[in-house]
Write a structure and sequence with these properties.
This protein is an alpha+beta fold and 203 residues long. Helices cover 28% and strands 31% of the residues. The chain folds into two domains: 59 residues; 138 residues, Immunoglobulin-like (Sandwich), CATH 2.60.40. The protein contains two helices and eleven strands; from the N terminus they run H-H-E-E-E-E-E-E-E-E-E-E-E. Strand 9 and strand 10 form a beta hairpin.
């Protein structure tokens, strides 16, 4: 072996180059693994949050009721006073929406109860006293799928002070808001006719 071959073998760096390549490859694998873990974790988190949002929206939609029929206003006075109805009641029938969940209709409950609000041009009443009467059901004050209830509001402020200030006069417009514990607010807006009768059904 001559001196030239010895120098060439001494300067052969193929082993070092292979080691550097292996280190770089391992670094790439580690970085790719970490990146894949981050992407996968973020995707799972986003999917879970999306599922929670969908379930929350579904629960809200299923916790909503609907009005069946019209709104009936009955005057208890023997003589109809054309200036407005102050002694009588407003009532309507409600049921759950298709595939809906049970909705509590106990007006005396202290929590998890359905609240009834009233609006007109001159007054805002956030908590109106009402009576829930079962038409079709199993005997409790829980509106369940397949059941039908009537919600009634006494207009006489002596027996129902919560309606003080309400004005059901000819051509006036009023709104009852049914606020369930979970579902969307049901807006019940009607207009009084120009001529008042003893019993009026407003659509």
């Amino acid at each position: 072996m001559n001196l030239r071959n010895l120098i060439q073998r001494t300067r052969d760096e193929r082993g070092i180059t292979g080691l550097e390549t292996a280190i770089i490859l391992i670094a790439f694998v580690v970085v790719a693994t970490v990146f894949a873990f981050v992407v996968l974790t973020t995707g799972i988190f986003s999917a879970e949050r999306g599922k929670e949002t969908v379930f929350a929206g579904l629960q809200k939609a299923r916790g909503t009721m609907e009005v069946r029929g019209g709104v009936v206003i009955a005057d208890d006075d023997a003589t109809i006073v054309q200036t407005g109805i102050t002694d009588g009641s407003v009532q309507w029938s409600v049921a759950t929406t298709a595939g809906g969940e049970a909705i509590p209709l106990d007006p005396d409950a202290t929590s998890n109860r359905t609240v009834l609000a009233y609006r007109d041009a001159g007054v805002i009443i956030d908590d109106v006293t009402y009576v829930a009467t079962e038409i079709v059901g199993d005997g409790d004050l829980l509106l369940e799928p397949g059941e039908l209830f009537t919600m009634s509001v006494d207009l006489n402020t002596t027996t129902n002070p919560s309606m003080t200030g309400a004005s059901l006069t000819p051509n006036s417009r009023f709104t009852f808001e049914i606020q369930t514990p979970v579902g969307a607010v049901l807006d019940l807006t009607r207009s009084m006719p120009a001529q008042l009768d003893a019993v009026m059904q407003l659509h």
